[in-house]
């Protein structure tokens, strides 16, 4: 017979999730907290092997000290306190699938999704490294990709803990072949930069569909990792932005000192690229937003057959979007799982349960049978005592009363103890708090314990959200916004609610290498002159538009406007050499001044006005109010040459008006009150306007020529 229920400690075993050479992982149920868990165990051989047991213990303790949204949570370390017991690890149960199931030559991960996965891996590793833990076996099968887009790093079995004992045998390489760093292969001391190399391998595989280092044998693969560069990713996938090649080259550098020095640095560079890339997406139409919402609803309701056609249509229309791809993968996986479960017969289920019972004999020893004896028939004397109503019956009643009183006292004592020492006796209590969240700038998405809450911080006041858990639990609040570095705050739940959370987000930046031809130019960024000269590097935020001005004596001024959405300019900025200016001189018999076409002064009034102008065509105005001159002309200036023009000649004008109480303007310039005689005026066509106080006016046009006086009389008509 097979037991109806198999347990390890207080946890009920549901089914086996996976099995390996050292042990197995089971899905379990925690009845105390009503939750699914994963339980990792060892085989009898592994338990008896000191290195295997030590590796198992190290995994447990390494993961247990890391509380991070992207690292698997350890709930309990079972039987670790005694060497003669069978250890096990109780972890959070993770849905989704291993990242290894999502990548390959015939599988497509959108660029934005691949970058987001790599960023989460880097943030988790950076947290582990800062807490003294190097994973040493970062690979796709150790990264769990959940259906909501979060990742969880698993299996710290060969992690190195800072300050801990080294369990791995000397001279033995640890890690998985295709993802090992050069220093791992050579048996050198390693640090977090080794995990950075492994993460670069994963990113390469997600984007290219194949591993960066491949070979016919293990020796060939190891040789390539140490000595050869992988095929450039942009040759495998030419649609990728060129910045990703620079990032991968640095992450996969053979020398650890040439890599990103921390996983956090790699995450920051990927976030910059992701922010710019997402801004290039077309704005989703109302119809697209509606269909995306429908996909999310169908996923929540687990209507997988309805998800597939809608998600497939969206993937075809917008292959760069993450949600439809993720929903399609989840729906296909869940339908396959449901079909497989339907195919399992009752006999197969019973056989599986029998196998589990045999596998877990070490952890669930058979209970000793309890023999229940039937009461013997009473003797005549016993029967006599049972029916007697004297002292014997009274003694029995007193004994029962005494037992009842003892029970009451015990219950009362427990009640008092529960009131006074409840947390110590019954464990931590469940807490629910409201926390106020805002950010500068507003518009940040809020994540609690890595889960998107679907709301953003606003400009009109803080958002109020509920956080809950057991007393002492760590709760993380993370704010994310395109163009800004994410911020995370961790709270340990206590009876007092947490203070309002209102961080200022630092904008992400990217570095522009300003190179000019020739070098030595001065650079101003957003109106502020920078120190030094080209070549130089400037940092640009990913949320602002920037103006870059480059100047150099003898060369034309260069002004560049750089928006967050556009790629940074590449290559040197070629400066155009300025031509030597020319000179304009006006020959004139009367004082005049020079102006530009927009009224800016070039030269004051004089008998020989001149101006220095750049090579080319210029529109200038000759101005002399005394002789009614406002004349525009085009001049051509040649390099280092003098251009001479002659002012118009003068004629004479005689002006009368009837009646005489009027104002006179000539070619738009106010003249003296009439009459006036023999007045100098430049040759050419002029408009004479007479205006009387009652609003009546007279307008006339006359041609002026040198040596031919012009007589003009204004009359009310």
Account of the 3D structure:
This protein is an alpha+beta fold and 717 residues long. The chain folds into seven domains: 1-93, Phosphorylase Kinase, domain 1, CATH 3.30.200; 96-278, Transferase(Phosphotransferase), domain 1 (Orthogonal Bundle); 286-319 and 321-343, no CATH class; 430-492; 509-574, Immunoglobulin-like, CATH 2.60.40; 582-646, PapC, C-terminal domain (Immunoglobulin-like), CATH 2.60.40; 650-715, Sandwich (Immunoglobulin-like), CATH 2.60.40. Helices cover 29% and strands 29% of the residues. It has 15 helices and 39 strands. It has a six-stranded antiparallel β-sheet. The protein has a four-stranded antiparallel β-sheet with strand order 14-13-16-17, with no helix packed on it. α10 (286-300) packs parallel to α12 (322-343) and α11 (304-317) packs antiparallel against α12 (322-343). It is elongated, with a radius of gyration of 43 Å.
Itemize the secondary structure elements and their pairings.
Elements: E1 7-8, E2 11-19, E3 23-30, E4 35-42, H1 44-48, H2 50-64, E5 74-78, E6 88-92, E7 97-98, H3 111-130, E8 133-134, E9 143-145, E10 151-153, E11 160-161, H4 182-185, H5 192-208, H6 218-227, H7 233-236, H8 242-251, H9 263-279, H10 286-300, H11 304-317, H12 322-343, H13 346-359, H14 380-387, H15 391-426, E12 430-437, E13 445-448, E14 451-456, E15 463-470, E16 474-480, E17 487-492, E18 509-514, E19 516-517, E20 522-525, E21 528-529, E22 536-541, E23 546-551, E24 558-562, E25 573-574, E26 582-587, E27 592-596, E28 601-606, E29 610-613, E30 616-624, E31 629-637, E32 642-646, E33 650-658, E34 663-666, E35 669-670, E36 676-682, E37 684-691, E38 697-704, E39 710-715
Parallel strand pairs: 19-25, 26-32, 33-39
Antiparallel strand pairs: 1-2, 2-3, 3-4, 4-6, 5-6, 7-9, 8-11, 9-10, 12-15, 13-14, 13-16, 16-17, 18-22, 20-21, 20-23, 23-24, 26-29, 27-28, 27-30, 30-31, 33-36, 34-35, 34-37, 37-38
Helix pairs in contact: 3-5, 3-9, 8-9, 10-11, 10-12, 11-12
């Amino acid at each position: 017979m097979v037991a109806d229920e198999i347990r390890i400690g207080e946890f009920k075993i549901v089914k086996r999730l996976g099995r390996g050479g050292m042990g197995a992982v089971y899905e379990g149920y925690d009845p105390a907290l009503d939750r699914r868990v994963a339980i990792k165990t060892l085989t009898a051989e592994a338990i008896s092997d000191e290195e295997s047991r030590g590796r198992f213990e190290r995994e447990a303790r390494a993961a247990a000290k890391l509380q991070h949204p992207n690292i698997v949570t350890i709930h309990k370390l079972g039987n670790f306190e005694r060497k003669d017991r069978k250890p096990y690890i109780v972890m959070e149960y993770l849905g989704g699938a291993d990242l290894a199931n999502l990548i390959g030559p015939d599988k497509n991960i959108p660029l934005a999704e691949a970058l987001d996965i790599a960023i989460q891996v880097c943030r988790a590793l950076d947290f582990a490294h800062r807490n003294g833990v190097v994973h040493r076996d970062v690979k796709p099968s150790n990264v769990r990709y959940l259906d909501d887009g979060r990742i969880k790093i698993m299996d710290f079995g060969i992690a190195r803990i800072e300050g801990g004992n080294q369990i791995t045998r000397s001279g033995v390489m640890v890690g998985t072949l295709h993802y090992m760093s050069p220093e791992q292969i050579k048996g050198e001391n390693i640090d977090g930069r080794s995990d950075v190399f492994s993460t670069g391998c994963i990113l390469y595989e997600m984007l290219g569909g194949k591993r960066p280092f491949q070979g016919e044998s293990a020796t060939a693969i190891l040789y390539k990792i140490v000595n050869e560069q992988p095929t450039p990713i942009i040759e495998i996938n030419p649609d990728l932005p060129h910045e990703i090649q620079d990032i991968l080259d640095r992450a996969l550098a053979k020398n650890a000192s040439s890599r990103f020095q921390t996983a956090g640095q790699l995450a920051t560079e990927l976030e910059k690229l992701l922010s710019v890339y997402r801004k290039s997406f077309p704005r989703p139409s109302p119809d697209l937003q509606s269909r995306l919402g429908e996909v999310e609803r169908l996923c929540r309701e687990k209507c997988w057959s309805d998800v597939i056609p809608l998600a497939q249509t969206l993937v075809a229309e917008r292959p760069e979007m993450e949600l439809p791809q993720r929903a399609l993968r989840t729906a296909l996986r869940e339908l396959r799982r449901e079909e497989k479960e339907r195919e399992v017969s009752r006999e197969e289920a019973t056989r599986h349960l029998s196998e589990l019972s045999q596998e877990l004999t070490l952890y669930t020893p058979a209970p000793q049978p309890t023999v229940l004896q039937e009461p013997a028939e009473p003797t005549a004397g016993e029967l006599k005592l049972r029916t007697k109503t004297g002292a014997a019956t009274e003694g029995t009643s007193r004994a029962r009363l005494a037992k009842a009183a003892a029970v009451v006292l015990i219950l009362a004592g427990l009640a008092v103890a529960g009131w006074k020492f409840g947390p110590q006796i019954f464990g931590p209590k469940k807490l629910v708090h409201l926390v106020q969240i805002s950010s500068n700038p507003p518009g940040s998405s809020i994540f609690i314990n890595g889960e998107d809450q679907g709301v953003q911080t606003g400009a009109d006041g803080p958002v109020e959200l509920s956080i809950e858990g057991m007393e002492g639990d760590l709760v993380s609040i993370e704010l994310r916004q395109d163009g800004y570095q994410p911020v995370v705050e961790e709270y340990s739940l206590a009876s007092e609610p947490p203070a309002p959370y209102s961080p200022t987000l630092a904008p992400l930046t990217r570095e522009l290498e300003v190179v000019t031809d020739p070098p030595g130019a001065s650079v101003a960024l957003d109106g502020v002159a920078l120190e030094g000269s080209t070549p130089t590097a400037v940092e640009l935020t990913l949320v602002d538009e920037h103006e870059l001005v480059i100047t150099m004596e003898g060369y034309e001024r260069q002004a560049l406007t750089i928006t967050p959405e556009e790629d940074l300019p590449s290559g040197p900025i070629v400066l155009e050499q300025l031509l030597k200016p020319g000179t304009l001189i006006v020959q004139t018999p009367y004082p005049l001044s020079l102006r530009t076409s927009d009224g800016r002064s070039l030269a004051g009034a004089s008998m020989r006005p001149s101006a220095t102008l750049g090579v080319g065509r210029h529109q200038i105005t000759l101005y002399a109010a005394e002789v009614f001159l406002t004349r525009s002309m085009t001049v051509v200036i040649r390099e280092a040459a003098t251009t001479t023009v002659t002012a118009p000649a003068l004629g004479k004008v005689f002006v009368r008006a009837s009646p005489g109480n009027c104002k006179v303007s000539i070619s738009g310039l106010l003249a003296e009150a009439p009459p006036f005689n023999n007045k100098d005026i430049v040759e050419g066509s002029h408009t004479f306007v007479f205006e009387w106080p009652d609003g009546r006016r007279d307008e006339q046009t006359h041609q002026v020529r040198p040596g031919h006086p012009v007589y003009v009389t204004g009359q009310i008509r």
